[in-house]
Amino acid sequence: MKNILTEEDKKWRPQLGTELREYLQVLLKSTNTDNLSQDWNETDMARYVMAKGIEAVTGEPIPGSVRQMFKRFDKDLDL
């Protein structure tokens, strides 16, 4: 495979900020529908997205050591 990234591309790093927060707020509208212990906020949704991302990348359930990061939050996770 041919390397098409320039040195400038390799140094570029996306910033997590307004765009991600706005996207998470859109996701929250479909999540906060009285099916959770309490309504989630952007941080809760970010954790959920990370959890699902781990599953998607590894093809396996979230490891117990990583699950510890979620503490009581994981009671609402459909994992």
Describe, in plain words, how this protein is organized in 3D.
- The protein is mainly alpha-helical and about 80 residues long.
- The protein has a domain at about 40-79.
- It is built from four helices and no strands.
- It starts with 6 loop residues before the first helix and ends in a 12-residue tail after the last helix.
Keywords:
79 residues, 4 helices, mainly alpha
Write the layout of secondary structure elements.
Elements: H1 7-11, H2 18-31, H3 42-58, H4 64-67
Major sheet characteristics: none
User: Mean pLDDT across all residues, rounded?
Assistant: 79
Note the beta-strand portion. under 5%
- Count the beta strands: 0
Helix content: 40-55%
Radius of gyration: 16 Å
How widely separated are the two ends? Answer: 36 Å
Regarding quaternary structure, how should these chains be classified?
single chain
So what's the overall shape? extended
Counting DSSP H or I runs of 4 or more residues, the number of helices is 4
